[in-house]
UniProtKB/TrEMBL annotation:
<keyword id="KW-0456">Lyase</keyword>
<dbReference type="Pfam" id="PF13378">
    <property type="entry name" value="MR_MLE_C"/>
</dbReference>
<dbReference type="InterPro" id="IPR013342">
    <property type="entry name" value="Mandelate_racemase_C"/>
</dbReference>
<dbReference type="InterPro" id="IPR036849">
    <property type="entry name" value="Enolase-like_C_sf"/>
</dbReference>
<dbReference type="InterPro" id="IPR029017">
    <property type="entry name" value="Enolase-like_N"/>
</dbReference>
<dbReference type="Pfam" id="PF02746">
    <property type="entry name" value="MR_MLE_N"/>
</dbReference>
<protein>
    <submittedName>
        <fullName>Galactonate dehydratase</fullName>
    </submittedName>
</protein>
<dbReference type="InterPro" id="IPR029065">
    <property type="entry name" value="Enolase_C-like"/>
</dbReference>
<feature type="domain" description="Mandelate racemase/muconate lactonizing enzyme C-terminal">
    <location>
        <begin position="132"/>
        <end position="237"/>
    </location>
</feature>
<dbReference type="InterPro" id="IPR013341">
    <property type="entry name" value="Mandelate_racemase_N_dom"/>
</dbReference>
<dbReference type="InterPro" id="IPR034593">
    <property type="entry name" value="DgoD-like"/>
</dbReference>
<dbReference type="GO" id="GO:0016829">
    <property type="term" value="F:lyase activity"/>
</dbReference>
Amino acid sequence: MKIVDVKTYVLGTPWRNITCVEVLTDEGVSGFGEVRMVNRTEALKGYLSEAVPNHVLGHDPMRIEDLTQRMYRNDYGRAGEVSMSALSAIEIACWDIMGKVLNKPVYQLLGGAVRDRIKAYANGWYTVERTPEEFHRAARRVVEKGYQALKLDPFGAGFYELERAEKHKAVALVEAVRDAIGPEAELLIEMHGRFNPATAIEMARLLEPFEPSWIEEPVPPENLAALKKVANRVSIPVATGERIHARHEFREIFELQAADIIQPDITQMGGLMEAKKLAAWAESYYVLVAPHNVGGPISTAAALHFAASTPNFKIQEHFNDFADSWVKTAAPGNPEVVDGYFALPQGPGLGVRFDPDVAREHPQERIFFNLYAENWHLRQAQQPAKGDESCK
């Protein structure tokens, strides 16, 4: 079996473009991969246009390790977001092909299930006015949808520090959400790398009464000494890792014991096999894994197969019950969240199939998503910077 073509589709929304790749073989079996890039979709497409003919066409899709090694090594560059995202999408599609050929769900090829269901948490649900009353109502809708865990960033457009009034507002929002979901549901706090260590520590201590299960990216990801400083001075578990794109870059996190949970994005750090290798390494340090997932249904499917087969998996992020209704229809087949959990995915392969007609109905959009803009949490189309014609 040989790869004869790779097709690329982009599914657009007001705040995210989701790139799907279809890997086609000479035996008529095809597989699907996916990645959501933040403001770099054109760069990804450009990289694929060079990588596919040089590394992918003519390769046996069942020789996944060999293919990923060629894509990683032979460009003679350093692993980065764009190249690793392209590699990941191709790698995930090859697992989809292998599962279809062998008539098995992918998680069985990754070692088999170690759990009977997969815990989920909701994200993207708080696209409402930033008041305690509106956040309370929105959080209630999450619980009514069947989730037992949710995540929010209550800090507005904050960066490094917060004004005193903004600190009180963030606490009030979290208090309202905890009241809405009750004492048993999991509450996860996203910080998006906003703060200097002093502010991150202060906010974590102010939020301790609401018993968050973690604080995520409390400081920018470039400085692990700062992350270690936070971890040493807070009682809430620390999570990080979505902006790390190569396995070896987690080494210092583990050695410093700077995080309790890592959050690799399977679609941006090498795919399923690389994520499994990383999880095994993390387990040696008693670190849990909660994959980052801001993509569509193919990304979710890959994450579910990883979760099903990984002993130190904690919980799975999911956006698509609360954002962009057409995204789920683009690749149906994933289980729904029931009583806070996904059922195990059904095969063969990933268990979903991309519908290009949905992408044609919702084409790529010229958007710029800025987490430091006012009202970014509404996840609506944002205006490009003045004079930036490329974003129009």
